[in-house]
Hints:
By secondary structure, the chain is an all-alpha fold. The chain has one domain. α1 runs parallel beside α2. The radius of gyration is 24 Å and the shape is rod-shaped. The protein starts with a helix and ends in a 13-residue tail after the last helix.
Amino acid sequence: MSAGDWDAALDAFAARLAEQRAAITSRSADPGEFTPPDGLGPLPERLRERAMRLVEESEAVTAALEAAAARIERELAAMERSAKETPPPIPSFFDHRA
């Protein structure tokens, strides 16, 4: 494959990272993993720096996802504790016709 194919693959990877970062901040569905096309061959030297920046960004997105998952886990645990500690509501009216 050509260097142009690598450019397109890196563009697609950058777009997927942007979608994933947006999904974290908007709390929407994760767009899923990026799967590079088959048969790209070796990375051209001129794209090495860009690829390394994208790998670093990918690691940052992964860290943000892990932090979001940990936050959600804490929130769920707090909700479960609260539900266990909160007594059931007491009816405030009595239907004497029943």
